[in-house]
Amino acid sequence: MALPAPRSAAVQIKRPPPPEFTPAASTAQLPAASGPTSPVAFKSVGGAGVSASPAPGAKRETTQRLCRNVMIYGLSAVLMMQCIYYHPAPGEAISTPASTAPSPSLANTSLPSANGSKLAAGLGAAAPAFVPKTPTVENTSPAHSAISLQPQWASQADGGILELEVDGVPMQPGLSYDDQSMYMTQQHIRPPLDYNLYTAPLTSVANPPLATHPLHSFCIPDDLRRYLTSRNDAQWFAPSGNSYPGLPNEIGVYHSLTPLDPPRLPMHGGPIHGHPLSRIFPHPAPAYRARSTVDGGIYMLRRIEGYKLVNEAAFGAIDSWKRMRHPNIVSLREAFTTKGFGDNSLIFVYDFHPDSATVLDEHIQPDAAPLTMGRRRLGMPIHEKVLWSYITQVANGLKAIHMSGLAARNMDPSKMLITGKNRIRLNGCGILDVLAYDGSTPVAVFQQEDLVSFGKLVISLCCEFFAPGQHPGPALEHITRQYSPDVKNLILFLVSKPSPLKSVDDVIRMAGARILNDLDAAQNYIDVLEQNLATELENARLVRLMSKLGFINERAEFELDSRWSDTGDRYILKLFRDYVFHSVGGDGRPILDMSHVVTCLNKLDAGLDEKVMLVSRDDQSCLVVTYRDIKICVEGAYNELRNSGAGMMGAGMMQMLGR
Ligand SMILES: Nc1ncnc2c1ncn2[C@@H]1O[C@H](COP(=O)(O)OP(=O)(O)OP(=O)(O)O)[C@@H](O)[C@H]1O
């Protein structure tokens, strides 16, 4: 991506005011740079000047001088700036012999000192200037480069060529800074942008192929984002007051109750205590979403109105249901009685699955309320592939229940919850074990009833006009015409007479290879989600980086120095913050370019050797530094904070973010 234009395209070259700070003749220390990256030695060895105002005679015509911006912004961008300096023709090699090399990188560099005055690096000014060096990289991994050398502060005392020292060792004596890295030859190969975006999409996951959507593959897909957002909305939406009007403030450890049932006309005998009778429970059984004060989690409370406890043994199965954990079953957490609603109510607490719908509402009931985000319900007729997926999942849940010595007893489309992408979960399990307790009937009988109810459920899903209690003949004729013979055979098997030889294992056998479709779909979906997870993982890096910059920039007071965040290494970070977030266009309007922000932060995190020109707000100072230098400054300043009392906060935050 092209870098945006600086605040001022052509850097104003001004002779700085006489400096207040005068370093030693040959070696100077930048007074404010006190961090780990600060102690810097810089020497002047004579020769051509390093400032923007070279010595008379050595100066070339401006039109003859090679424009540095070509290196930074590229030729085409510079030509648009109408820069007065010399620009090579496209393809022309740039020759920069040491003797005729133009001024070095710091066109007009002034750094504020610790006491607030500006230190100018100009000819004769003998002021310190930041000269970034290219440190040795021990580990070339873009993510975690181990940098062995620190950037050095350099100065020239008498206008000579800079001699840079890294840990006391001079870097290629005799060469100006320009020769070493400022003027790159045209053969210099920039790292591709992907280098900074660590997560490259897996080609196996990309669908459509990568080439057709290279940019989108770096972001979470819109449909997944919408789905997760609406699920979060459904999870955390709460009534404005303490609780829903007309409902108690709390029931046991649960508060903020919100009704889940869509408004519906009374069925099966009219309302009792204001709610219609449930389709399958012999009581009104409204459902509520509520929050627990114990763990802060959201749960679904199923209230059985007007319940009278007849037999303590009725609660015997509850413990078994509480232990049941299965991907196709809504987990029961607890059950208790309460008078909190003003009557004798029995409460079953289940896991809450936000933005879910019952199979009844999704497919069979035409007037069901629309789902969140206005998603339309799937309705009827149901596709055979989806039907077999439902059959597979219900059989899977039912097998787990039967193997635990229990029976579902509520195989009804209103008690099948569709969560996420076509995931079916058996809902309301255990309620009928309490409400219709029958200690004298063997559980195998109820298990056989489950299979018959399963068969009727499949008929309901295939045939819109079938109602429970009707003769299945006409419905089966319809199914024979619309679906494969396997569907009809399965239904006939399920609704046939109970037999000890009949079990849910037979259903799984009859579904046969179709079960593999579900396995394929689940595994493909895992691949997609893992890929998206990896993409989102990268966000944490940028948050960490922004947190560190936030900790450092504009810090009011640190170590009794009110200008700590504006001086030394931190000054570079301040300019970098402005470069990333506070760019303005030629018309003075703010540039809100997210891709610029993301690109810059990624480059900073990778610590690239790519150079960036940082210009102060008043256009008086300009620094050319690499992202690697900035990264070292960030780490230095952040460690300085962390090693002090303020570090407690930073460390806690970073721990939270995983680093
Ligand atoms: N565990 C749950 N998590 C989230 N939502 C649920 C859960 N159980 C049910 N719901 C939602 O609550 C609403 C009512 O569910 P319920 O089981 O009461 O259906 P119903 O058709 O009203 O049944 P009944 O006739 O027995 O009252 C449905 O929209 C359903 O999606």
Automatic annotation (TrEMBL):
<dbReference type="InterPro" id="IPR000719">
    <property type="entry name" value="Prot_kinase_dom"/>
</dbReference>
<dbReference type="GO" id="GO:0000289">
    <property type="term" value="P:nuclear-transcribed mRNA poly(A) tail shortening"/>
</dbReference>
<comment type="similarity">
    <text>Belongs to the protein kinase superfamily. PAN3 family.</text>
</comment>
<dbReference type="GO" id="GO:0008143">
    <property type="term" value="F:poly(A) binding"/>
</dbReference>
<keyword id="KW-0067">ATP-binding</keyword>
<keyword id="KW-0547">Nucleotide-binding</keyword>
<feature type="domain" description="Protein kinase">
    <location>
        <begin position="275"/>
        <end position="552"/>
    </location>
</feature>
<dbReference type="Pfam" id="PF18101">
    <property type="entry name" value="Pan3_CK"/>
</dbReference>
<keyword id="KW-0963">Cytoplasm</keyword>
<dbReference type="InterPro" id="IPR011009">
    <property type="entry name" value="Kinase-like_dom_sf"/>
</dbReference>
<feature type="binding site">
    <location>
        <begin position="351"/>
        <end position="358"/>
    </location>
    <ligand>
        <name>ATP</name>
    </ligand>
</feature>
<dbReference type="InterPro" id="IPR041332">
    <property type="entry name" value="Pan3_CK"/>
</dbReference>
<protein>
    <recommendedName>
        <fullName>PAN2-PAN3 deadenylation complex subunit PAN3</fullName>
    </recommendedName>
</protein>
<feature type="binding site">
    <location>
        <position position="302"/>
    </location>
    <ligand>
        <name>ATP</name>
    </ligand>
</feature>
<dbReference type="GO" id="GO:0004672">
    <property type="term" value="F:protein kinase activity"/>
</dbReference>
<dbReference type="GO" id="GO:0000932">
    <property type="term" value="C:P-body"/>
</dbReference>
<dbReference type="GO" id="GO:0005524">
    <property type="term" value="F:ATP binding"/>
</dbReference>
<dbReference type="GO" id="GO:0031251">
    <property type="term" value="C:PAN complex"/>
</dbReference>
<dbReference type="GO" id="GO:0006397">
    <property type="term" value="P:mRNA processing"/>
</dbReference>
<feature type="region of interest" description="Disordered">
    <location>
        <begin position="1"/>
        <end position="37"/>
    </location>
</feature>
<feature type="coiled-coil region">
    <location>
        <begin position="513"/>
        <end position="551"/>
    </location>
</feature>
<feature type="region of interest" description="Knob domain">
    <location>
        <begin position="552"/>
        <end position="659"/>
    </location>
</feature>
<feature type="binding site">
    <location>
        <begin position="414"/>
        <end position="415"/>
    </location>
    <ligand>
        <name>ATP</name>
    </ligand>
</feature>
<keyword id="KW-0507">mRNA processing</keyword>
<comment type="subunit">
    <text>Homodimer. Forms a heterotrimer with a catalytic subunit PAN2 to form the poly(A)-nuclease (PAN) deadenylation complex. Interacts (via PAM-2 motif) with poly(A)-binding protein PAB1 (via PABC domain), conferring substrate specificity of the enzyme complex.</text>
</comment>
<dbReference type="InterPro" id="IPR030844">
    <property type="entry name" value="PAN3"/>
</dbReference>
<keyword id="KW-0175">Coiled coil</keyword>
<comment type="function">
    <text>Regulatory subunit of the poly(A)-nuclease (PAN) deadenylation complex, one of two cytoplasmic mRNA deadenylases involved in mRNA turnover. PAN specifically shortens poly(A) tails of RNA and the activity is stimulated by poly(A)-binding protein PAB1. PAN deadenylation is followed by rapid degradation of the shortened mRNA tails by the CCR4-NOT complex. Deadenylated mRNAs are then degraded by two alternative mechanisms, namely exosome-mediated 3'-5' exonucleolytic degradation, or deadenlyation-dependent mRNA decaping and subsequent 5'-3' exonucleolytic degradation by XRN1.</text>
</comment>
